[in-house]
Sequence to fold (100 residues):
Amino acid sequence: MDFGNTVLIICRLVLGAISSFLAILLWSRTRDAAWLFVIISAIIAYVEIIYSILNLLGVIGENILPENAVLIISILLSCLPTVFIIAAFLVMNMRKYRRR
Fold:
């Protein structure tokens, strides 16, 4: 692994940890559905970062999990944050147009 990959991994881990920490702090103070979807999205994005780094380093791979499981987990973890952001936008739009 070269220096560029190391810096990328460290940046992703640090920034993801900060966003997850702040999301968890916000989670304890809010009960708004849209914000909860955004918070869940941030946490799942951090789980995806950790999973992809472990997969890159060879800690998680075909020797531990079957290849199909690795593929399904990768797809789910990469798509779920976007799905939760879409859900947050839908909640906000429904709330805005329902008031009219």
In short: The chain has a mean pLDDT of 90. DSSP finds three helices and no strands in the chain.
